[in-house]
Amino acid sequence: MTRYALTIEFDGGPFMGLQRQAHGPSIQQAIEDAAFTVTGERTVMHAAGRTDAGVHGLGMRAHLDVTKPFDAFRLMEALNARLRPAPVAVLACDVVPDDWHARFSCTGRAYIYRIANRRAPLTLERGKAWQVAKPLDAQAMHRSAQALVGRHDFTTFRSVHCQSASPLKTLDRLAVRREGDMVLIEAEARSFLHHQVRSMVGCLALVGMGRWREEQVAEALAARDRQTLGLNAPPDGLYFVRATYPEDRP
Amino acid sequence: MTRYALTIEFDGGPFMGLQRQAHGPSIQQAIEDAAFTVTGERTVMHAAGRTDAGVHGLGMRAHLDVTKPFDAFRLMEALNARLRPAPVAVLACDVVPDDWHARFSCTGRAYIYRIANRRAPLTLERGKAWQVAKPLDAQAMHRSAQALVGRHDFTTFRSVHCQSASPLKTLDRLAVRREGDMVLIEAEARSFLHHQVRSMVGCLALVGMGRWREEQVAEALAARDRQTLGLNAPPDGLYFVRATYPEDRP
């Protein structure tokens, strides 16, 4: 048995999410089906994170085990050939030790959220960003975001469907910046609660629009009450950027 | 009668091209139909450039005449509301003098061509870039491109369907640079022949792959023969970026 670590890019638009689901297509199913066609073996893919329907991946990490020996590069090429026309691609494939686990060995996860801050409807970016017509004050968003950095009870920013044992998480970074008409929000943590990034982005957008005072983000956090959540941002603008592992070179 | 200048963004994927066509949807038809719904008037849209099926627009300029008086901002909002769900959006709308003409007053046109230089199939960028698996030498492409800058007979880089009276054009700028795995080619001229940008990009890509010597671009130009064209790049990577007019502020 050989364990292969994959780096995966995907357009989340046509999928119900990363994880295999009974009621619709998933990234996991696309990869596992491609792997079966290539290897003749049924294998289960484990990924660094779960993503919701419509959420995209730039550098998702995952692993799968194959009994027959394959050259890692040839396996990647064969998977990509079989994944067409699904908008899922394997960017890298490496042999890793048997105890390397894409989910459990992962020590850091990074997301980016893209807000298209403009009046005109989206065309080329449709499904790839959240369009917010009202002008956003990105600096105010960044300032208010800093109240969320650190170890906190993120109950306010957690989906009712969240399966995490605890609402306590340590947010390492939450940075907001403007690039032209795009407002970009970067979030980094060891792990996130279900809907945490979208919930944080939704509240920051309210601050950016002037509908929330900057202090309201900290107040919502302190309330530890989902009812105080202002807004859950749509999945379109969310991208899983990278997963980091202890052995990664700096 | 009032003349309105529009700045238009579009995803060219679902269209047969910018210009109205008998056999399929066009950007022109989408805008004219939206204008009819808004104004009750049949009007003809004139654009700064024509684009082929699959070619995108970031800042296409166009104009249309309306008899009923409309506030320019409200006209833009109404057009955008009616354009949905077509991936066409009006980014700006201004009243201009009656002798301002989107096509004939235009003194400069700029395109960008995006090559995704990677082995993995495209996912999020599908239809939005040309995927070239073989590593490209962007510096060699830039050097060989300089032979095309200036006033030349561009017969080699001209579609057989080109309707221009003369193959003589003055290319003001052709610059190639790499940004990560994207190779970006910017082209600027007063006007271009049909397929000129895609034909130039195709030959530059051959140089980038090492299949053409750098001098072959100049030789192909000098041959003034379409048969010497190496490759016509696909429409997916081509974007009309902007049109400039004498009265534009610098």
Automatic annotation (TrEMBL), chains A, B:
Reported function: Formation of pseudouridine at positions 38, 39 and 40 in the anticodon stem and loop of transfer RNAs.
InterPro entries in the record: PsdUridine_synth_cat_dom_sf, PsdUridine_synth_TruA, PsdUridine_synth_TruA_a/b_dom, PsdUridine_synth_TruA_C, TruA/RsuA/RluB/E/F_N
Reactions listed under catalytic activity: uridine(38/39/40) in tRNA = pseudouridine(38/39/40) in tRNA
Gene that encodes the chain: truA
Active site (record annotation): 52
Gene3D superfamilies: Pseudouridine synthase I, catalytic domain, C-terminal subdomain, Pseudouridine synthase I, catalytic domain, N-terminal subdomain
Protein name in the entry: tRNA pseudouridine synthase A
Entry keywords, A to Z: Isomerase, tRNA processing
Binding residue positions for substrate: 111
